[in-house]
């Protein structure tokens, strides 16, 4: 992404005195500093699992949190067949998780304790990451922290500062703008197949997109790119990106579009990964580790990843089904 412009932003309306008496003010429950995952823009949340300090990738693109097999072995956890998730925000995925390279996991493990920031959970079931070798070289990475554990709260992330905040959901509707940017956008989101979907415009065409903080890249399904824009692997302006997850049979490509707009935010000349839809061809319905999306028939049309989100401040209000977004605050000037 070479630039971002915030335009035509939604102005939040104030609440009346009667409504203010019936609901509470915004209340911060937890705040913690995240770290980058290696050289990527993906963020890692410090966690403690069964008393051991680890890190988990912040991942809004998955309905359920996952644990690497390496850490499950380290903590000597007993694996069992995963149960299907329940709940309106947790979705109802199958008990099988699958990644873009075809790895499949039907296993889960229960950790006695899991804490991040001021949040402490007991007896938490975590899915086992499909790729058995993932993170074996980085044992501090325990897995990913997803919406089954996050959406009990309002989730606020300023990607410019890397700070994750969790707020109580018991507040006046729309009364979330504590950081007071010059402008803020608000848009309704839907939960489909357990994932956050918003409408977007790519080069003037409407698409359905998934918000995925666990993906470094913004992605368009290669079949969708072909149908909508006539793009193929050998089209002018499409460049090879190489193998995904070191899988030589799964090659991705890159293309620069003119603009990507969502919720009043317009990103100019975004570079987007064109990814073959192996999930749809295989008829799979499972978790993908690279863009981490559970799907009915394959990849989402578009995935908005961290190469776009890193410029933004987002606030997800699950009970309102509203996605708030502004530009991230500029870094403070050095003294």
Largest sheet entry: 11 strands, mixed
Helix count from the secondary structure assignment: 6
Give me the Rg, rounded: 20 Å
Mean pLDDT: 82
Count of beta strands = 27
What is the CA–CA distance across the termini?
29 Å
The geometry reads as globular
Strand content: 35-45%
Helical amount among residues, as a percent range?
Answer: under 10%
By secondary-structure content and strand pairing, the structural class works out as: mainly beta
Parts with pLDDT < 50 across at least 5 consecutive residues: 1-20, 86-94, 280-297
Describe it.
The structure is a single chain. The chain has about 325 residues and is mainly beta. The protein contains 6 helices and 27 strands. Strands 1, 16, 17, 18, 19, 20, 21, 22, 23, 24 and 25 form an 11-stranded mixed β-sheet that branches.
Characterize this entry briefly.
The chain is mainly beta. It contains six helices and 27 strands.
Structural features:
27 strands; mainly beta; 335 residues; eleven-stranded mixed sheet; 6 helices; six-stranded antiparallel sheet
Describe the secondary structure blueprint for this structure:
Blueprint: E1 3-6, H1 17-22, E2 28-33, E3 35-36, E4 43-49, E5 52-58, E6 66-67, H2 69-74, E7 80-81, E8 97-98, E9 104-105, E10 107-116, E11 119-128, E12 141-145, H3 147-150, E13 154-158, E14 163-167, E15 185-188, E16 190-192, E17 195-202, E18 205-211, E19 219-221, H4 222-229, E20 239-244, E21 247-256, E22 259-262, E23 265-268, E24 271-275, H5 278-282, E25 302-304, H6 306-309, E26 312-317, E27 322-327
Parallel strand pairs: 5-12, 6-11, 18-25, 19-24
Antiparallel strand pairs: 1-23, 2-14, 3-4, 4-5, 4-10, 6-12, 7-10, 8-9, 10-11, 13-14, 13-26, 15-27, 16-17, 17-18, 17-22, 19-25, 20-21, 21-24, 22-23, 26-27
């Amino acid at each position: 992404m070479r630039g971002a412009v915030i335009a035509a932003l939604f102005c939040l309306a104030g609440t009346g005195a009667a409504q203010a008496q019936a609901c509470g003010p915004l209340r911060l429950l937890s705040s913690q500093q995240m770290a980058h995952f290696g050289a990527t823009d993906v963020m890692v949340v410090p966690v403690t699992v069964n008393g051991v300090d680890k890190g988990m990738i912040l991942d809004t693109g998955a309905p359920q949190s996952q644990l690497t097999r390496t850490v499950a072995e380290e903590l000597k956890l007993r694996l069992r067949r995963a149960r299907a998730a329940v709940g309106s925000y947790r979705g109802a995925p199958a008990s099988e998780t699958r990644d873009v390279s075809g790895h499949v996991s039907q296993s889960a493990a229960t950790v006695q304790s899991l804490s991040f920031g001021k949040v402490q959970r007991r007896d938490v079931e975590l899915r086992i990451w499909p790729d058995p070798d993932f993170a074996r070289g980085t044992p501090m990475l325990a897995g990913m922290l997803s919406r089954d554990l996050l959406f009990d709260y309002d989730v606020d992330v300023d990607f410019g500062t890397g700070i994750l905040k969790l707020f109580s959901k018991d507040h006046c509707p729309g009364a979330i703008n504590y950081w007071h940017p010059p402008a803020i956008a608000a848009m309704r989101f839907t939960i489909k197949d357990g994932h956050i979907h918003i409408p977007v415009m790519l080069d003037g065409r409407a698409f359905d997109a998934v918000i995925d903080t666990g993906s470094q890249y913004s992605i368009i399904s290669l079949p969708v790119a072909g149908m909508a824009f006539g793009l193929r692997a050998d089209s002018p302006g499409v460049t090879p990106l190489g193998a995904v997850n070191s899988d030589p049979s799964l090659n991705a490509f890159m293309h620069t579009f003119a603009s990507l707009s969502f919720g009043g935010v317009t990103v100019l000349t975004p570079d987007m990964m064109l990814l073959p839809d192996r999930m749809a061809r295989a008829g799979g319905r499972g978790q993908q580790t690279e863009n981490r999306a559970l799907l009915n028939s394959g990849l989402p049309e578009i995935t908005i990843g961290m190469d776009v989100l890193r410029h933004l401040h987002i606030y997800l209000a699950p009970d309102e089904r509203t996605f708030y977004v502004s530009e991230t605050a500029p870094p403070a000037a050095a003294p």
